[in-house]
Task: structure prediction
Amino acid sequence: MEGGRTVIVREPEIRVNERIRAREVRVIASDGKQLGVIPVREALKMAEELGFDLVEVAPNAMPPVCRLMDYGKYKYELKKQAVAKKQKVQLVKEVNFRPNIGEHDLDVKINRIREFLEDGHKSKVRISFRGREITHPELGKELAEKIIERIIDIGLIDALPKFEGKSLIMVIAPKKK
Result:
């Protein structure tokens, strides 16, 4: 709604067969081969003989581009693509930790992970070691255990904690509702 009014966005109309307004059209066969610029009447006859519809795929081109195809199948494919676009994309949100993080900072970052999981996103936890911290990997593993304990009610461990270079990484996925 925009300023209390409902705005309706209309899809561009796809012209088929007799609805095509141009005099001449560039025709593409069902196999993708170009047949050239042909008057609309001839193109319609050709489409009818082959058992296809003449569908305008590029109305703004000069001359408009039409394709010989099954219009019902074309509409189905467009609908399928629209549904695929609408499907919710699950993102992987990353939260960085250090092995000697303070208790309050840990709470804040765990709350961020909980928010990501509640929104349906995966969360990648990275515990980064700097300098000589890497000589104490047990600190990172203890921190990972603390994080797991606090989010296990709303999340599942998707990838167990493992070292990649100077970082301990694990992935947490939201529980199915």
About this structure: The CA atoms of residues 27 and 58 lie 11 Å apart.
